[in-house]
Amino acid sequence: AQSVTQPDIHITVSEGASLELRCNYSYGATPYLFWYVQSPGQGLQLLLKYFSGDTLVQGIKGFEAEFKRSQSSFNLRKPSVHWSDAAEYFCAVGVPGTASKLTFGTGTRLQVTL
Amino acid sequence: DTAVSQTPKYLVTQMGNDKSIKCEQNLGHDTMYWYKQDSKKFLKIMFSYNNKELIINETVPNRFSPKSPDKAHLNLHINSLELGDSAVYFCASSQAGTSIHEQYFGPGTRLTVT
């Protein structure tokens, strides 16, 4: 069965600094990969997704992620963090051919200091 | 226009009661889901319906029963509520059930069982 690991439970960055959130997956082939963001008291919003093709994908709010097959990783990056980016970030994996089942990581809480 | 809506947003009830949470999507999607997010923010799928047909049924107690009157609605009924049912329940929808598509989430229903 597939699994997702987000090694960092909590990350604090200063506003304007760059950000990288780590995500590693376990699956025998190339899965479908997603990053979602959850602001306090809100539902999850899709930031970006990777299905195939270009391994660097662009998302909303200035986020990007890079799929690295050799490292089984799909890290999320942003060049300059804004205070409004403070939220919980979830990486998720879907297995092609299964019935839309997503497996989520445990999330990384991002705190932004001014 | 809210894409995926849930009612109620908050639900406080006593052990042993029966309660329902309603979900509606206006995205024209074929597939809907229920997820449970525990106090540690871990998100796990419970059920998925595709065109009113159950396609995912994870290991969930029989006290939980989803009902899909049409493909735009997926309700969750919970019998004999227990303390451990306290969580945030998210409804989601996606384009199709037999392949992986991004899922759109509702705002969540915070259930507190006392």
Q: Secondary structure elements and their pairing?
A:
The complex is a heterodimer of chains A (114) and B (114).
Chain A lengths: L2 E3 L4 E5 L4 E3 L2 E3 L5 E7 L5 E7 L5 E3 L5 E5 L4 E6 L8 E8 L7 E3 L3 E6 L1
Parallel strand pairs in A: 2-12
Antiparallel strand pairs in A: 1-4, 3-9, 5-6, 5-10, 7-8, 8-9, 10-11, 10-12
Chain B lengths: L3 E4 L2 E4 L5 E7 L5 E7 L5 E8 L2 E5 L6 E7 L2 E6 L8 E8 L9 E2 L3 E5 L1
Parallel strand pairs in B: 2-11
Antiparallel strand pairs in B: 1-3, 3-8, 4-5, 4-9, 5-6, 7-8, 9-10, 9-11
Describe, in plain words, how this protein is organized in 3D:
- The complex is a heterodimer of chains A (114) and B (114).
- Chain A has strands spanning 3-5, 10-14, 19-21, 24-26, 32-38, 44-50, 56-58, 64-68, 73-78, 87-94, 102-104, 108-113.
- Chain A is built from no helices and 12 strands.
- The relative contact order of chain A is 0.33.
- The model of chain A has no long low-confidence stretch (mean pLDDT 92).
- In chain A, the strands form 3 sheets. In chain A, strands 2, 5, 6, 10, 11 and 12 form a 6-stranded mixed sheet that branches.
- Helix content of chain A is 0%, strand content 52%.
- By secondary structure, chain A is an all-beta fold.
- Chain B contains no helices and 11 strands.
- The radius of gyration of chain B is 13 Å and the shape is globular.
- In chain B, the strands form 2 sheets. In chain B, strands 2, 4, 5, 6, 9, 10 and 11 form a 7-stranded mixed sheet that branches. Chain B has a 4-stranded antiparallel sheet with strand order 1-3-8-7, with no helix packed on it.
- Chain B has 114 residues and is an all-beta fold.
- Chain B has strands at 4-7, 10-13, 19-25, 31-37, 43-50, 53-57, 64-70, 73-78, 87-94, 104-105, 109-113.
- The A-B interface holds A 32, 34, 36, 38, 41-46, 49, 51, 88, 90, 94-102, 104, 106-107, 109 and B 4, 31, 33, 40-45, 48, 50, 55-56, 90, 92, 94, 96-108.
